[in-house]
Amino acid sequence: MKIAILGGTGALGKGLASRWIKANHEVLIGSRDINKAQEIAVELGLESSAGMLNIDAADLGDIACLTVPFAHQESTLSSIGNKLEDKILIDATVPLVPPKVMRVQLPPEGSAAMKAQSIMGEGTKVVSAFQNISAELLQTDKEIDCDVLVSGDFLEARATVIELAADAGLKGWHAGPLCNSVAAEALTSILIAINKKHSLQHSGIKITGH
Ligand SMILES: NC(=O)c1ccc[n+]([C@@H]2O[C@H](COP(=O)([O-])OP(=O)(O)OC[C@H]3O[C@@H](n4cnc5c(N)ncnc54)[C@H](OP(=O)(O)O)[C@@H]3O)[C@@H](O)[C@H]2O)c1
């Protein structure tokens, strides 16, 4: 699958990219700055031509994954126009409001994923995932003992993202409709608080009962 990572030059984007490259997916690194995108593509072992502007990555990709800070979610999605029409957009955005990142602070739309869907319109299938996974761990070869909650209004699109989570070495779970993304997004602030209070580096979540 050709996966466009929008904001792919950052911590989470590079982590997911490295895992998907190892799983033999074609990865496109999107950025606001083509030079930066090409530099990171080469750093990840890709041809420099795999680095490009976000709008071009969105256009060329079969599927896209958004990995930018919440404050820049709207501007990034607005900058790609209708390039994700009839495609899946994986939204990994967590609506953190620095400096109080240990406090759950949700946007008026209900969640970052719901906001992404309202920006993109009905032609794009937004699926929420990866909010509770450490970018730092993704950038290593280590096994990651953390599950992924995958929510979205389209069953097949969710199933595709669960497969991509598996390709990244992660267990994904169908977590219901897109509005449920609020739970995964809110959990991130709790995990940050747990990391701090319990001196952990990469706390995560695990579904039990199987
Ligand atoms: N870090 C984690 O462990 C982690 C885990 C799960 C979820 N998340 C979520 O994933 C998202 C990305 O996190 P991250 O840690 O990867 O973020 P990051 O490294 O701080 O930034 C990611 C990319 O966002 C783009 N960006 C930065 N400022 C921007 C601006 N003013 N306008 C437009 N784009 C801008 C940059 O790309 P260009 O400069 O190349 O355009 C940057 O490389 C966040 O919503 C975060 O909450 C993070």
Structure description:
Strands 3-2-1-4-5-6-7-8 form an eight-stranded mixed β-sheet, sandwiched between helices. It is α/β, with parallel strands linked by helices and 210 residues long. The two termini are 30 Å apart. α5 (112-120) links the parallel β5 and β6 (125-128). It has eight helices and eight strands. α4 (73-79) packs parallel to α5. The protein has helices at 11-22, 34-43, 54-60, 73-79, 112-120, 135-138, 155-167, 181-197, and strands at residues 2-6, 26-31, 51-53, 63-66, 88-91, 125-128, 147-152, 171-174. 38% of the residues lie in helices and 17% in strands. The protein binds NADP nicotinamide-adenine-dinucleotide phosphate. NADP nicotinamide-adenine-dinucleotide phosphate binds next to α1 and α4. Residues 7, 9-13, 31-33, 36, 67-70, 72, 75-76, 92-94, 96, 130-131, 133-135 line the site of NADP nicotinamide-adenine-dinucleotide phosphate.
Bound molecules: NADP nicotinamide-adenine-dinucleotide phosphate
For the terminal residues, how far apart are their CA atoms? 30 Å
Structural class: alpha/beta
* The level-1 CATH class: Alpha Beta
CATH topology grouping: Rossmann fold
CATH superfamily: NAD(P)-binding Rossmann-like Domain
Overall residue-averaged pLDDT value = 97
**Element string (H = helix, E = strand):** EHEHEHEHEHEHEHEH
Query: What portion of the residues fall into strands of 2 or more residues?
Result: 15-25%
Backbone shape: globular
Number of helices: 8
Which segments are poorly predicted (pLDDT under 50) over 5 or more consecutive residues? none
- Summarize the biggest pleated sheet: 8 strands, mixed
Strand order across the largest sheet: 3-2-1-4-5-6-7-8
**What is the C-alpha radius of gyration, as a whole number of Å?**
16 Å
In helices, the fraction of residues equals 25-40%
Number of E strands: 8
What is the level-2 CATH architecture name?
3-Layer(aba) Sandwich
Number of structurally distinct domains = 1
